[in-house]
Amino acid sequence: MGLDMIAICDHNTAENAGAVMKEGKKHGLWVIPGIEICSKEEVHILALFDALDKTLAMQDYVYANLTGDNKPEVFGYQVVANEHDEVLGENPRLLIGATQLGLYEIVEKTHALGGISLSSHVDRTAYGIIGQLGFIPPDLNIDGVEVSYRVSLDKVYDEVPGIGKLPSMTASDAHFLDDIGKVWTVFVMAKPTINEINRALLGEDGRRIMV
Fold this sequence. Notes:
Layout: E1 5-11, H1 17-26, E2 30-38, E3 44-48, H2 52-63, H3 72-75, E4 79-81, E5 87-90, H4 103-112, E6 116-119, H5 129-133, E7 144-147, H6 156-159, E8 168-170, E9 186-188, H7 194-202, E10 208-210
């Protein structure tokens, strides 16, 4: 699809991120490990990291605050696989559910582990922060917002006025293979790291997002 970098952000888990990172390395694709966390307010928020161990530490934090068991016949099989596409097992947790973590807790923990925090698909009513809360709390220390393919970055501040002047990026939010690369963000940065992405979001020292 012509992508240089992708992020793997499963819902409330990162158990498949390591396999994708290994496979991506073989093909020159930079893979950012992350988690899309559902807060107790039922807002989806992305936690992105440079290293798998930090992502798994965030996963432990999420798991400690996630209740319920999956029902495969209702919600589907939650497969854990390796880089060879071999099934290693299933995740028994209710990953589709909301955690008991508040938004402030999620953002604070993400930053404590050296990651960046982005509010997911803010243009969507379902599970977007504006759709759920009606606004973005001004003291919520998020690093930026993600918009879906429905909104182009050059129109984001007009079409999603509730985000104020928060840095914005777009992503495919792909749940199916055919959706990968439907939209993308072009970052101007020195290297593919979380710190550089954050600097591009802030427009620091020539780093930027091309719109």
